[in-house]
Write a structure and sequence with these properties.
The chain has 308 residues and is an alpha/beta fold. The chain has helices at 41-51, 66-78, 120-124, 127-132, 144-156, 173-176, 186-192, 202-212, 250-263, 268-282, 295-304, and strands spanning 4-8, 12-18, 34-39, 55-63, 81-88, 94-100, 106-111, 135-138, 160-163, 181-182, 216-220, 226-230, 234-237. Strand 6 and strand 7 form a beta hairpin. The chain is globular and about 50 Å long.
Length: 308
Protein backbone atom coordinates (compact mmCIF):
# COMPACT_ATOMS: atom_id res chain seq x y z
CA UNK A 1 0.00 0.00 0.00
CA UNK A 2 1.26 3.48 -0.91
CA UNK A 3 1.61 6.01 1.88
CA UNK A 4 0.86 9.49 0.49
CA UNK A 5 1.38 12.39 2.90
CA UNK A 6 0.92 16.11 2.24
CA UNK A 7 2.53 18.48 4.74
CA UNK A 8 1.36 22.09 4.95
CA UNK A 9 3.64 24.10 7.17
CA UNK A 10 6.83 25.85 8.13
CA UNK A 11 10.36 25.74 6.78
CA UNK A 12 13.15 27.26 8.92
CA UNK A 13 16.88 27.32 9.28
CA UNK A 14 17.80 26.27 12.83
CA UNK A 15 20.71 28.11 14.48
CA UNK A 16 21.74 25.79 17.29
CA UNK A 17 24.17 26.39 20.15
CA UNK A 18 24.96 23.90 22.89
CA UNK A 19 25.38 25.23 26.42
CA UNK A 20 25.83 23.74 29.89
CA UNK A 21 22.45 25.21 30.91
CA UNK A 22 19.83 27.74 29.85
CA UNK A 23 20.61 31.37 30.77
CA UNK A 24 18.51 33.21 33.34
CA UNK A 25 17.00 36.60 32.37
CA UNK A 26 19.83 39.11 31.94
CA UNK A 27 22.52 36.42 32.15
CA UNK A 28 25.15 35.48 29.58
CA UNK A 29 26.18 31.83 29.47
CA UNK A 30 29.32 30.75 27.60
CA UNK A 31 28.19 28.24 25.00
CA UNK A 32 29.95 25.42 23.23
CA UNK A 33 29.59 24.22 19.64
CA UNK A 34 27.37 26.01 17.12
CA UNK A 35 25.73 24.71 13.95
CA UNK A 36 23.07 25.47 11.35
CA UNK A 37 20.54 22.77 10.54
CA UNK A 38 17.48 22.57 8.26
CA UNK A 39 14.34 22.80 10.39
CA UNK A 40 10.81 24.11 10.81
CA UNK A 41 8.09 21.82 12.08
CA UNK A 42 6.53 21.38 8.67
CA UNK A 43 9.80 20.57 6.92
CA UNK A 44 10.93 18.31 9.76
CA UNK A 45 7.72 16.31 9.61
CA UNK A 46 7.90 16.09 5.82
CA UNK A 47 11.46 14.72 5.96
CA UNK A 48 10.51 12.37 8.80
CA UNK A 49 7.65 10.90 6.77
CA UNK A 50 9.80 10.63 3.64
CA UNK A 51 12.65 8.83 5.45
CA UNK A 52 10.05 6.43 6.84
CA UNK A 53 8.94 5.44 3.36
CA UNK A 54 6.07 7.75 2.47
CA UNK A 55 5.59 9.67 -0.75
CA UNK A 56 5.60 13.26 0.51
CA UNK A 57 4.57 16.59 -0.95
CA UNK A 58 5.01 19.88 0.88
CA UNK A 59 3.31 23.26 0.68
CA UNK A 60 5.18 26.13 2.34
CA UNK A 61 7.11 29.32 1.71
CA UNK A 62 10.73 30.48 2.05
CA UNK A 63 12.51 33.76 1.43
CA UNK A 64 14.57 34.61 -1.64
CA UNK A 65 17.82 34.28 0.30
CA UNK A 66 20.62 31.79 0.85
CA UNK A 67 18.79 30.01 3.69
CA UNK A 68 15.62 29.64 1.62
CA UNK A 69 17.32 28.29 -1.46
CA UNK A 70 19.39 25.85 0.61
CA UNK A 71 16.33 24.60 2.52
CA UNK A 72 14.24 24.08 -0.61
CA UNK A 73 17.10 22.22 -2.27
CA UNK A 74 17.63 20.10 0.83
CA UNK A 75 13.99 19.01 0.90
CA UNK A 76 14.17 18.05 -2.76
CA UNK A 77 17.33 16.02 -2.13
CA UNK A 78 15.47 14.12 0.60
CA UNK A 79 12.86 13.15 -2.00
CA UNK A 80 10.13 15.56 -0.88
CA UNK A 81 8.14 17.10 -3.74
CA UNK A 82 8.72 20.85 -3.31
CA UNK A 83 6.63 22.12 -6.22
CA UNK A 84 4.32 23.58 -3.57
CA UNK A 85 7.14 25.44 -1.79
CA UNK A 86 7.09 29.00 -3.13
CA UNK A 87 9.66 31.79 -2.74
CA UNK A 88 8.78 35.17 -1.24
CA UNK A 89 10.64 38.27 -2.40
CA UNK A 90 9.24 40.30 0.51
CA UNK A 91 10.04 38.12 3.53
CA UNK A 92 13.19 36.45 4.79
CA UNK A 93 13.32 32.73 5.40
CA UNK A 94 12.17 31.68 8.86
CA UNK A 95 14.84 31.01 11.46
CA UNK A 96 14.84 29.32 14.86
CA UNK A 97 17.34 30.14 17.61
CA UNK A 98 17.84 26.98 19.66
CA UNK A 99 19.79 26.43 22.87
CA UNK A 100 20.42 22.80 23.83
CA UNK A 101 21.51 22.08 27.42
CA UNK A 102 23.74 19.30 28.75
CA UNK A 103 20.69 17.04 29.29
CA UNK A 104 19.60 17.32 25.66
CA UNK A 105 16.62 19.58 26.44
CA UNK A 106 16.07 22.59 24.22
CA UNK A 107 14.74 26.15 24.37
CA UNK A 108 13.58 27.70 21.08
CA UNK A 109 12.70 31.15 19.75
CA UNK A 110 11.33 31.33 16.19
CA UNK A 111 11.29 34.25 13.74
CA UNK A 112 8.65 33.06 11.26
CA UNK A 113 9.55 35.22 8.26
CA UNK A 114 8.12 33.91 4.99
CA UNK A 115 6.18 31.17 6.79
CA UNK A 116 3.63 33.74 7.92
CA UNK A 117 2.98 34.87 4.35
CA UNK A 118 1.67 31.43 3.33
CA UNK A 119 -1.93 32.30 2.39
CA UNK A 120 -5.19 30.45 1.73
CA UNK A 121 -4.76 31.49 -1.91
CA UNK A 122 -1.43 29.63 -2.00
CA UNK A 123 -3.26 26.46 -0.95
CA UNK A 124 -5.89 26.93 -3.62
CA UNK A 125 -3.16 26.83 -6.25
CA UNK A 126 -2.25 23.31 -5.10
CA UNK A 127 -5.71 21.78 -4.71
CA UNK A 128 -4.64 18.66 -6.60
CA UNK A 129 -2.17 17.86 -3.82
CA UNK A 130 -5.05 17.63 -1.36
CA UNK A 131 -6.87 15.19 -3.66
CA UNK A 132 -3.68 13.11 -3.97
CA UNK A 133 -2.98 12.80 -0.25
CA UNK A 134 -4.23 10.10 2.09
CA UNK A 135 -3.08 12.13 5.10
CA UNK A 136 -2.66 15.91 5.34
CA UNK A 137 -0.52 17.16 8.21
CA UNK A 138 -0.64 20.65 9.72
CA UNK A 139 1.10 22.61 12.50
CA UNK A 140 0.57 26.16 13.79
CA UNK A 141 3.73 27.87 12.50
CA UNK A 142 1.66 29.20 9.58
CA UNK A 143 -1.17 31.79 9.65
CA UNK A 144 -4.23 30.40 11.42
CA UNK A 145 -6.56 31.32 8.55
CA UNK A 146 -4.33 29.32 6.19
CA UNK A 147 -4.35 26.31 8.50
CA UNK A 148 -8.15 26.49 8.76
CA UNK A 149 -8.57 26.75 4.98
CA UNK A 150 -6.17 23.85 4.47
CA UNK A 151 -7.96 21.64 6.98
CA UNK A 152 -11.31 22.34 5.34
CA UNK A 153 -9.86 21.60 1.90
CA UNK A 154 -8.34 18.33 3.13
CA UNK A 155 -11.68 17.26 4.58
CA UNK A 156 -13.47 18.12 1.33
CA UNK A 157 -11.05 15.88 -0.55
CA UNK A 158 -11.54 12.99 1.87
CA UNK A 159 -8.05 13.01 3.42
CA UNK A 160 -7.28 12.11 7.04
CA UNK A 161 -6.38 15.32 8.91
CA UNK A 162 -3.64 15.46 11.57
CA UNK A 163 -3.01 18.70 13.49
CA UNK A 164 0.11 19.15 15.60
CA UNK A 165 -0.95 22.33 17.48
CA UNK A 166 2.52 23.79 17.89
CA UNK A 167 3.11 26.43 18.99
CA UNK A 168 -0.18 26.20 20.87
CA UNK A 169 -2.69 29.01 20.59
CA UNK A 170 -6.44 29.47 20.94
CA UNK A 171 -8.25 27.69 18.12
CA UNK A 172 -11.55 28.68 16.50
CA UNK A 173 -14.38 26.21 17.03
CA UNK A 174 -14.61 25.33 13.33
CA UNK A 175 -11.10 23.81 13.39
CA UNK A 176 -11.81 21.32 16.18
CA UNK A 177 -14.58 19.46 14.38
CA UNK A 178 -12.54 19.09 11.18
CA UNK A 179 -9.52 17.39 12.81
CA UNK A 180 -9.26 13.60 12.81
CA UNK A 181 -6.17 13.37 15.05
CA UNK A 182 -4.83 16.08 17.37
CA UNK A 183 -1.23 15.56 18.56
CA UNK A 184 -0.12 18.06 21.23
CA UNK A 185 2.68 17.66 23.73
CA UNK A 186 2.04 18.28 27.44
CA UNK A 187 2.67 22.01 27.26
CA UNK A 188 0.46 22.46 24.21
CA UNK A 189 -2.30 20.35 25.75
CA UNK A 190 -2.21 22.49 28.89
CA UNK A 191 -2.46 25.71 26.87
CA UNK A 192 -5.32 24.40 24.72
CA UNK A 193 -7.15 23.21 27.84
CA UNK A 194 -6.56 26.54 29.66
CA UNK A 195 -4.70 24.59 32.31
CA UNK A 196 -1.34 24.85 34.02
CA UNK A 197 1.27 22.26 33.11
CA UNK A 198 1.62 21.27 36.77
CA UNK A 199 -2.08 20.47 37.14
CA UNK A 200 -2.60 18.93 33.69
CA UNK A 201 -4.53 15.66 33.53
CA UNK A 202 -3.75 14.50 29.96
CA UNK A 203 -6.75 12.18 29.71
CA UNK A 204 -9.17 14.84 30.97
CA UNK A 205 -7.69 17.39 28.55
CA UNK A 206 -7.95 14.92 25.67
CA UNK A 207 -11.61 14.24 26.50
CA UNK A 208 -12.25 17.98 26.47
CA UNK A 209 -10.74 18.20 22.98
CA UNK A 210 -12.94 15.32 21.84
CA UNK A 211 -16.02 17.10 23.21
CA UNK A 212 -15.05 20.06 21.03
CA UNK A 213 -15.16 17.84 17.96
CA UNK A 214 -11.73 16.19 17.48
CA UNK A 215 -12.03 12.48 16.65
CA UNK A 216 -8.84 11.21 18.33
CA UNK A 217 -6.08 12.70 20.51
CA UNK A 218 -2.52 11.64 21.26
CA UNK A 219 -0.78 13.67 23.98
CA UNK A 220 2.99 13.13 23.84
CA UNK A 221 4.49 13.05 27.33
CA UNK A 222 8.24 13.00 26.70
CA UNK A 223 9.99 10.50 28.98
CA UNK A 224 6.56 9.24 30.11
CA UNK A 225 5.54 8.14 26.62
CA UNK A 226 2.18 9.15 25.23
CA UNK A 227 -1.54 8.82 25.86
CA UNK A 228 -4.07 8.01 23.12
CA UNK A 229 -7.71 8.90 23.73
CA UNK A 230 -10.85 8.47 21.63
CA UNK A 231 -14.53 8.32 22.52
CA UNK A 232 -14.16 4.51 22.78
CA UNK A 233 -10.82 3.85 24.48
CA UNK A 234 -7.66 5.11 26.15
CA UNK A 235 -4.19 3.66 25.45
CA UNK A 236 -1.07 4.54 27.45
CA UNK A 237 2.21 3.82 25.64
CA UNK A 238 5.45 4.03 27.64
CA UNK A 239 8.51 5.71 26.15
CA UNK A 240 11.45 3.67 24.91
CA UNK A 241 14.54 4.03 27.08
CA UNK A 242 17.41 5.67 25.16
CA UNK A 243 20.34 7.97 25.95
CA UNK A 244 19.18 11.48 25.02
CA UNK A 245 21.63 13.74 23.20
CA UNK A 246 19.33 16.40 21.71
CA UNK A 247 15.52 16.47 21.88
CA UNK A 248 15.19 18.87 18.92
CA UNK A 249 12.68 17.47 16.37
CA UNK A 250 11.81 14.40 18.46
CA UNK A 251 8.20 15.52 18.43
CA UNK A 252 8.37 16.05 14.67
CA UNK A 253 9.76 12.54 14.20
CA UNK A 254 6.84 11.24 16.28
CA UNK A 255 4.20 13.15 14.32
CA UNK A 256 5.76 12.38 10.93
CA UNK A 257 5.79 8.68 11.78
CA UNK A 258 2.15 8.81 12.87
CA UNK A 259 1.22 10.28 9.48
CA UNK A 260 2.94 7.37 7.75
CA UNK A 261 1.16 4.77 9.86
CA UNK A 262 -2.24 6.37 9.35
CA UNK A 263 -1.65 6.72 5.58
CA UNK A 264 -0.79 3.01 5.45
CA UNK A 265 -4.00 2.14 7.27
CA UNK A 266 -2.28 0.64 10.30
CA UNK A 267 -4.13 0.13 13.57
CA UNK A 268 -3.52 2.93 16.05
CA UNK A 269 -1.49 0.75 18.43
CA UNK A 270 1.00 -0.09 15.68
CA UNK A 271 1.20 3.53 14.50
CA UNK A 272 1.91 4.71 18.05
CA UNK A 273 4.70 2.15 18.58
CA UNK A 274 6.24 3.15 15.24
CA UNK A 275 6.01 6.84 16.14
CA UNK A 276 7.41 6.31 19.64
CA UNK A 277 10.41 4.46 18.25
CA UNK A 278 10.99 7.21 15.68
CA UNK A 279 10.92 9.88 18.38
CA UNK A 280 13.23 7.86 20.61
CA UNK A 281 15.81 7.42 17.86
CA UNK A 282 15.68 11.14 17.03
CA UNK A 283 16.83 12.17 20.51
CA UNK A 284 19.98 10.06 20.17
CA UNK A 285 21.39 12.38 17.47
CA UNK A 286 22.09 16.10 17.20
CA UNK A 287 20.07 18.54 15.11
CA UNK A 288 16.59 18.57 13.67
CA UNK A 289 16.35 16.90 10.25
CA UNK A 290 19.80 15.39 10.70
CA UNK A 291 18.43 13.36 13.63
CA UNK A 292 15.40 11.87 11.83
CA UNK A 293 15.66 8.09 11.45
CA UNK A 294 15.25 5.90 8.37
CA UNK A 295 12.49 3.30 8.24
CA UNK A 296 14.90 0.38 8.47
CA UNK A 297 16.40 1.90 11.65
CA UNK A 298 12.97 2.15 13.24
CA UNK A 299 11.97 -1.38 12.23
CA UNK A 300 15.23 -2.80 13.59
CA UNK A 301 14.80 -0.82 16.82
CA UNK A 302 11.33 -2.33 17.27
CA UNK A 303 12.42 -5.84 16.22
CA UNK A 304 15.19 -5.91 18.81
CA UNK A 305 12.64 -4.94 21.45
CA UNK A 306 10.15 -7.56 20.25
CA UNK A 307 7.44 -5.04 19.38
CA UNK A 308 6.66 -5.92 15.74
Amino acid sequence: MTSRVLVVGSINMDLVIRAPRFPQPGETVIGEEFGTFPGGKGANQAVAARRLGAEVRMIGKVGNDSFGLKLREGLAQEGVDVSGVSISDNQSTGVALIVVDQNGQNSIVVSSGANMSLSPQDLGEHEEDFSWAKVVLFQLESPLETVLEGIKLAREKGAYVILNPAPARSLPQEIWKEVDLLVPNETEAAILANNSLQSLDPERAAREFIRKGVKEVIVSLGEKGCLYTSSQKVISHPAFNVQAVDSTAAGDAFVGALSVGMALGWKMERSIAFASASGALAVTKKGAQSSLPLREEVEEFLRVRGVF
